Amino acid sequence: MPGHVLTDTELNLLHDFQGSVDDWYAPGFELCDFGCGSGGYPEVADRLRVFALANESGSTYAVWLLDDRADLAQLPVVFLGDEGGVHLGARDMRQFFRIVASGWTPSANWKAIGYTDDRGTDAGQGFWPANAAFRAWLRRHFGLEAAEDPNSVAVLTHWPDAPIRSAPGGLPPRRCRACSVGCSFEFLAWCCSVWGSAVGWVRGRGVVGDRQATDEFGWYVESYTAQRILTERVSPMTELNAGRVRQAIVEQTRRLAESAVAAGPEAAVPTAPKWTVLDLVAHVGQTQHWVAEIIERRITDPSQLPGEMAVVPVDPREWLAWLSESAQRVAGACSDVALDAPVFNPAGDGRPGARFWMSSMLNEAVVHGVDAAGAAGRPADVEADIAAALVSNHLAMLTSPTWEMQRSESAHAIRGTGQRLQWVATDIADGAGAWFVERRPDGAVWMPGVRPADVTVSGPARSLLLALTRRLPLVGGEAAGVRVEGEVGLAQHWLDNTAHVSG
After folding, report:
1. What count of other Cβ atoms lies within 10 Å of the Cβ of residue 50?
2. Could you tell me which of 63, 150, 146, 148 has the C-alpha nearest to residue 113?
3. Closest-CA residue to 326 (of 355, 366, 283, 359)
4. Helices (DSSP H) in 36-130: which residue ranges?
5. Nearest residue to 105 via CA among 161, 56, 33, 139
6. Comparing 23-27, 152-156, 343-347, 378-382, which segment has the lowest mean pLDDT?
7. For the chain, which end, N or C, has fewer CB atoms within 10 Å of the first or last residue's CB respectively?
8. What is the rounded distance in angstroms from the CA atom of residue 287 to the CA atom of residue 358?
């Protein structure tokens, strides 16, 4: 296996631990010789290295040779089902260790992998007595804790035949009618109403019947390589420090509140048709309180989502305090401890739920802050790094696994035959502010960086964000520093078909 090595801090250490115990430390899990067979999938054996038995029925785990990285511990782990199915199990070896240490039992079919907790059953009671030692080993060597629920950590883990469930009381009120990609509040409301269907599609996207392993794995290679969802190999620009994001949520909400007070409750919002400023204030504050409760309660089941919304003060003199409270609450809920805790993520894109919500709440504050500023006739300041991070978040939402279920007409419209769009932020150093989009027959994908494109849209990160969220026209945006080179119609088509329209 030229170019690939085992590291002494990952599988070799686990091999030493396994040799030091005489009992099972996870259900049916056991290391085997590295590269021990194809796991029953000879069609893709050149891209996999089996290293462990996953359960007693013959399923295995393998390292996916996704690219040329020499350190295998940084590569994704794949589950090879003995009854069919090749599924992404973890983004890297350490996340995989957390899943194994949970003590939950894996199983899979052609469409999905799932984990069940058998520890309290007759089958599982006392079956892996060395699990406590394994957890201590994981904590000692890597400072990691076992996953409380591996279905919230692993990727592609929910079963496709889950019953359809709705949030208590139906869809939450004041759904956003303004957001270009659907603000997180609208997105979650929709996901809850069709969760069973969404999960089925997300977990087995395009995988039906006895689809061949080669095709299934090939699709994952395309999607996973292009979007970097699991390995988190993102442009440096897109990775904002969590403290920076929390601070920005509070600050951007403060600016929004000041603009709203200046505009007045009955003022129209030019960038949000049919909304008044009171509608805007209610939407942002209620969303922040609602999401904060989801994270605080560590809700993973959409049927348990909050059914009541915060009361909105009608008197504008109370808005500053009320919005400050909601912003502080949701920023505080996104604590470092919460960021990797099990929390519902409606996008189904592999991120821990709190990280999804933290990005979404920043998007809420910034984009709707621009709306409020427009209503008050004020300029809206958005720092370049914040705007750039939200461009990435915007594209991640449009290419998320559940976008087709939410907006099938949009997802279909932005498919293509290889059309390429490039977005470049001129105020982000070292070429980090660049996003490449390719419209493929099976869906649009994006990746950081600069590549040959049919159209290139460049300008300050703030202007790109406002253009993408339809707050700034693409044609005629020269005053904001936006420049379009190439097929203008291709870029306009993208914008025209990525606007969110709620009922």
Report:
1. 23
2. 150
3. 283
4. 93-101
5. 56
6. 152-156
7. C
8. 12
Cβ contact 167:130 at 8 Å? no
Helix (H/G/I), strand (E/B), else coil: 436: strand
d(CA 272, CA 375): 10
Instruction: Name the 3-class secondary structure at 189.
Output: helix
Output the six-digit token pair for 456. Answer: 């290139």
Across the strands, what pairs with 61? 52, 79
Chain centre to alpha carbon of residue 408:
19
The CA distance from 377 to 126, in Å, is: 67
Question: 103: which 2 tokens?
Answer: 């003590």
Coil vs helix vs strand at 5:
strand
- 251's tokens: 């600050």
Query: How far apart are the C-alpha atoms of 436 and 449, rounded to whole Å?
Result: 6
Q: Which helix (H) or strand (E) holds 461?
A: helix 461-468
What token pair was written down for 290? Answer: 């609602």
For residue 160, the model assigns a pLDDT of 29
Mean pLDDT of the 420-449 span: 90
Distances (CA, A) of 251 to 211, 362, 386: 50, 10, 12
User: Residue 37 burial by CB count (10 A; 0-12/13-18/19+): exposed, middle or buried?
Assistant: middle
Do residues 165 and 344 lie in contact, with contact meaning Cβ atoms separated by under 8 Å?
no
User: Considering the entire predicted model, what is its pTM?
Assistant: 0.61
* 464: helix, strand or coil: helix
* pLDDT at residue 111 is higher than 90: no
What whole-number distance in Å separates Cα of residue 325 and Cα of residue 319? 10
User: Distance between CA atoms of 76 and 401, rounded to whole angstroms?
Assistant: 18
Residue 492 vs residues 421, 455, 461, 495, 499: alpha-carbon distances, Å: 11, 10, 18, 5, 11
Amino acid in the structure at residue 246: R
User: In angstroms, rounded to a whole number, what is the distance separating the alpha carbons of residues 469 and 181?
Assistant: 7
Show the CA angle centred on residue 215, arms to residues 419 and 29, nearest 5°: 125
Confidence of residue 465 (pLDDT cuts 50, 70, 90): very high
**Cα atoms in the 13 Å half-sphere on the side-chain side of 126:** 1
For residue 167, the 8-state DSSP code is -
Residue 166 is encoded by which pair of tokens?
């709705």
DSSP structure string for 285-335: HHHHHHHHHHHHTT---GGGS----PPPPSSGGGHHHHHHHHHHHHHHHS-
- Beta strand extents in 42-124 (DSSP E only): 48-53, 60-64, 77-80, 86-90, 105-108, 113-116
Angle made by CA atoms 43, 45, 51, in degrees to the nearest 5? 145
Strands of the sheet with 443-448, listed across from one edge: 443-448, 434-440, 419-425, 455-459, 483-486
The Cα–Cα gap between 369 and 263 comes to 12
Nearest to 434 by CA among 446, 423, 426: 423
pLDDT for the residue numbered 478:
65
